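Retry 2 of 3 after timeout on previous attempt. Resubmitting structure tokens to design endpoint.
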């Protein structure tokens, strides 16, 4: 793996990479994820070269504080890691290259940060709803939502557990293939 400054790239590759970085950032922001964090992730994911904070700042035109904060968040999610480059004192970063492992890590973090708190909130709503006809209707709807969110939690949990399992990607591809035949 190369660990020098990012290599020169052809015009076609440069344009394609920039388009991917932009699209990944847009997609993430539509899902409520920090756009800059997603753009950094896309940049690192789309190259075999480790990048320094300075290289990332320059390529994406972002501040050092913004770069550092988002690199730390990506490392916390397990999507990137710090790597040593010879005798340099700069920190370099590279992305998880396995797309399946990346998906499982994202599922685990989204489950922890988004789904589990919603389950707690729905349970509190059920406890606090009170009595009466309208409260019963409210509780019924909260129970239905809780059941749905718990199902999502279960599915994300199973997905997150599969990081090193070769079977689950094949099962999903089979399900996908079945969907295309319908």
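Retry 2 succeeded. Sequence:
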């Amino acid at each position: 793996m190369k660990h020098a400054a990012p290599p020169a790239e052809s015009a076609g590759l440069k344009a394609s990479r920039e388009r991917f970085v932009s699209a990944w950032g847009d997609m993430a922001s539509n899902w409520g994820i920090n756009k800059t964090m997603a753009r950094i992730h896309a940049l690192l994911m789309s190259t075999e070269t480790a990048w320094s904070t300075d290289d990332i700042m320059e390529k994406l035109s972002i501040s050092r504080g913004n770069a550092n904060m988002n690199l730390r968040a990506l490392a916390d999610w397990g999507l990137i890691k710090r790597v040593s480059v010879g005798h340099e004192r700069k920190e370099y970063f590279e992305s998880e290259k396995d797309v399946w492992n990346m998906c499982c890590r994202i599922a685990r973090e989204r489950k922890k940060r988004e789904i589990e708190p919603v389950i707690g909130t729905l349970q509190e709503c059920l406890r606090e709803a009170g009595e009466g006809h309208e409260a019963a209707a409210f509780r019924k709807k909260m129970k239905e939502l809780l059941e749905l969110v718990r199902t999502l939690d279960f599915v994300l949990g199973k997905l997150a557990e599969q990081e090193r399992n070769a079977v689950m990607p094949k099962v999903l591809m089979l399900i996908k293939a079945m969907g295309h035949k319908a």
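Attempt log closed. The mean pLDDT is 87.
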